Every structure is written in structure tokens, then in C-alpha cells.
């Protein structure tokens, strides 16, 4: 991907947003890829969620490797309805702001390393007024040594990398890999979801709710601002276009900066095989069929990096082969709903990830974000 410049998005139109049924890794064609139904409204962006769908997800086409990322937004509301503003890497490092629709005065902050669930990582932050009725500014300031969550310019939580060292794994359980910015609205309260997820989300979702307008729930984004910091001092390589993961440990020093391309030949291609399926037009149009040829997906609805269970009592959620193997080193693809698809059947192409097996020597090719 081309060099990422610090940039503000005012969302006055849908220009720069490309459906993930079309996006193949060329960041010169779009700033964001989407699933579901984003909509314009009064110079802002609506993420919509109607009955029979699982909402809307936007993911930045460039990756941030440390930076200050802010979103000016109004959340949705209602039992079972979750709005999210997160950073998510291909190795399932994650930094979250999540908003449960039954508590409009609380923002949930969270972080994960390599998608490993830790229930002690979450912390509730107080919002000064109704998060649906009023715009608020939410900001994640992520540096190699420290991470802060702020609301309306006030730092409400600080995490120091030095406090996250895990003696068992002999590594810091701190988000440290290049990540995409994701904005999402999703129905955590679907009856088909695990009981723990439904309870966390405030109960089952209602499709006859006063919080719905024009037959859909919505979250409203006025703007997103991304200020990218310099790559860390231990970054390898001297390129200016892409990051590569060179070791499955996925520590900060295991990423190399290169000039390699990131445009995929089809939805079957990965960072390890950029041209797979390029000549097969039917394969490029769909990832259905042979399970071994299914593209990986990015979750935007679980509020956790591993896509498995991050709320007490859950036993399943959206799981993909890449998510399972990245966190555990074993496992196979499982089923679950995909952000932006039908709740009954996935009728929309899942968000494509530019990655292959994380256990290869050279793995994910992602976009470089620098000043």
C-alpha cells in the first residue's frame, strides 16, 4: 500500500469508501473498505443495521503503527446493540472503545494481545452526557511505551507497556503490531449469539424499537482523525510502502518495512500468494465453495481480537481459521455471523485481510502509516 499520511476524514460523502466486494488491497483506490450499508446524513456518516443484517463495518485501508486516532461520533442505543471504534491488527492485537446500547453514559475500554482473552483488561469510562443524543470526541493515543484512552480531551485511562510483561510467555502483552482503524455497529443481542454475549450487550435485540429510524438502528460519525507516529526504533528494513511480519512471535521488532506491493489478484489471494485466483473470474467474484479457498476475514463485531469468547459465558462467536491459528497455533475454521452480512446467511463478502498463515516466515503485508 502507498505511504499513509496523517489525515482527517469528515465523512461529508461516501467518497473514499469502497465496498469490500471490490476492494483488493489497493489503498490508492479507497481510504476505507466497508461491509453492510454505510449512508450519508447531514455531512456525516451513518453505520446502519436493519433486521436480517448484522450491521455495518468500516475498516481503514492503511495500517497505523502507533499514532493518535480520534473519532467524533454518536453511538446507537437499545438492548443488544453495540457501537465500536477500535484498532485491530492482523495478528489480533486490539485496542477498543465499545458502547453497549443500554448504557449511554459509559464507554468500555479494552485491549488484547495476539487475540488472547484477559477479562482483567477491560475498564469502564464515564461519558459526560448521553452518547446517542450528543457528539463526543473519543481518542486513542498509542505509542510504543504507553496507551491512553481519552473522552472530550480528558485522559481517562493510561496503560504502560512496562506493566504488561507476561513471565509465562516472556513477552509484553501489549498491542504492538500495525493495525487498521475499524468503525462498526453490530447486533450482539441476536438470539443465536452465546448467552454471555447477549447478557453483556444488555439483552436480546428488538427490531421494533424506538431507537430505530427508517427501519434501522444507526451510529453517526462526524469525523475521524488519524495522526501517525514514526515507526519504532527497532523496526527493520528501509522501505516506505508496506509492513511484513517476519516471525510468528509478532513482537514489535518482528516487523519489516518494505516496498512490496499489496494489491491482490483476487479474493482468494493472500500476502503469501498475491496472484492466486487472478485468472479465475468466478473465484474473484465470490469466496464461496471450497472451504480451503475461503478468504480470511476481519471481525468488527466481537469486541475481541481472537473472535472467540471475550464476554463471560460465551462459547462461540465469529471465528476464522486465521484467528484460531494466530492465537493458538492450532484449530480450524468455525462458523458465525460476519459483520455486514445477513444474519441468516452471509450474503455479503466478508472484509478481506491481506495475510496468509502467520506461521510462515514472511506473513502479513500491510500498509505503512508514517508522518
TrEMBL record:
Q: Which InterPro entries match?
A: Beta-glucanase-like (IPR000757), ConA-like_dom_sf (IPR013320), Glycosyl_Hydrlase_16 (IPR050546)
The identity of this protein, by name, is Glycosidase CRH2
Please report the stretch or stretches of sequence annotated as the GH16 domain.
1-209
Biological process GO annotation list?
A: carbohydrate metabolic process; fungal-type cell wall organization
Q: Name one GO cellular component term.
A: fungal-type cell wall
Q: What does this protein do?
A: Dual chitinase/transglycosylase that plays a role in cell wall architecture. Chitinase and transglycosylase activities are coupled. Required for the polysaccharide cross-linking at the septa and the cell wall. More specifically, transfers chitin to 1,6-beta-glucan in the cell wall.
Region named Disordered: 278-334
Q: Which family does it belong to?
A: Belongs to the glycosyl hydrolase 16 family. CRH1 subfamily.
Checking SUPFAM superfamilies in the record gives: Concanavalin A-like lectins/glucanases
| UniProt biased composition (Low complexity) | 315-334
A GO molecular-function descriptor: hydrolase activity, hydrolyzing O-glycosyl compounds
Q: Which domain of life is it from?
A: Eukaryota
Q: Where is the composition biased (Polar residues)?
A: 282-299
Print the keywords alphabetically.
Answer: Glycosidase, Hydrolase, Signal
Amino acid at each position: 500500500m502507498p505511504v499513509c499520511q496523517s489525515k482527517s476524514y469528515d465523512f461529508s460523502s461516501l467518497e473514499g469508501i469502497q465496498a469490500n466486494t471490490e476492494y483488493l488491497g489497493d489503498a490508492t483506490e479507497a481510504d476505507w473498505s466497508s461491509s453492510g450499508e454505510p449512508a450519508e446524513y447531514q455531512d456525516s456518516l451513518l453505520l446502519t443495521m436493519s433486521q436480517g443484517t448484522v450491521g455495518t463495518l468500516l475498516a481503514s485501508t492503511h495500517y497505523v503503527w502507533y499514532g493518535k486516532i480520534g473519532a467524533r461520533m454518536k453511538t446507537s442505543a437499545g438492548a443488544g446493540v453495540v457501537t465500536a471504534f477500535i484498532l485491530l491488527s492482523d495478528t489480533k492485537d486490539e485496542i477498543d472503545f465499545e458502547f453497549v446500547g443500554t448504557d449511554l453514559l459509559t464507554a468500555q475500554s479494552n485491549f488484547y494481545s495476539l487475540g488472547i482473552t484477559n477479562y482483567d483488561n477491560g475498564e469502564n469510562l464515564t461519558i459526560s452526557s448521553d452518547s446517542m443524543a450528543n457528539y463526543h470526541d473519543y481518542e486513542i493515543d498509542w505509542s510504543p511505551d504507553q496507551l491512553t484512552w481519552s473522552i472530550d480531551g480528558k485522559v481517562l485511562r493510561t496503560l504502560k507497556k512496562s506493566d504488561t510483561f507476561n513471565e509465562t510467555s516472556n513477552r509484553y502483552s501489549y498491542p504492538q503490531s500495525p493495525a487498521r482503524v475499524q468503525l462498526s455497529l453490530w447486533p450482539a443481542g441476536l438470539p443465536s449469539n452465546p448467552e454471555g454475549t447477549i447478557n453483556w450487550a444488555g439483552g436480546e435485540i428488538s427490531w421494533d424499537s424506538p431507537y430505530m429510524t427508517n427501519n434501522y438502528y444507526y451510529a453517526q460519525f462526524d469525523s475521524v482523525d488519524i495522526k501517525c507516529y514514526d515507526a519504532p526504533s527497532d523496526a527493520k528494513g528501509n522501505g516506505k510502502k508496506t509492513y511484513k511480519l517476519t516471525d510468528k512471535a509478532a513482537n514489535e521488532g518482528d516487523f519489516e518495512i518494505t516496498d512490496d506491493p499489496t494489491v491482490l489478484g483476487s479474493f482468494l489471494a493472500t500476502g503469501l500468494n498475491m496472484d492466486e485466483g487472478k485468472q479465475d473470474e468466478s473465484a474473484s467474484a465470490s469466496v464461496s465453495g471450497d472451504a480451503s479457498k475461503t478468504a480470511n476475514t476481519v471481525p468488527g463485531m466481537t469486541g475481541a481480537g481472537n473472535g472467540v469468547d471475550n464476554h463471560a459465558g460465551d462459547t462461540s462467536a465469529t471465528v476464522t481459521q486465521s484467528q484460531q491459528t494466530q492465537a493458538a497455533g492450532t484449530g480450524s475454521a468455525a462458523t458465525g455471523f460476519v459483520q455486514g452480512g445477513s444474519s441468516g446467511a452471509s450474503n455479503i463478502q466478508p472484509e478481506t485481510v491481506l495475510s496468509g498463515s502467520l506461521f510462515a516466515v514472511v506473513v502479513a503485508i500491510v500498509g505503512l502509516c508514517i508522518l
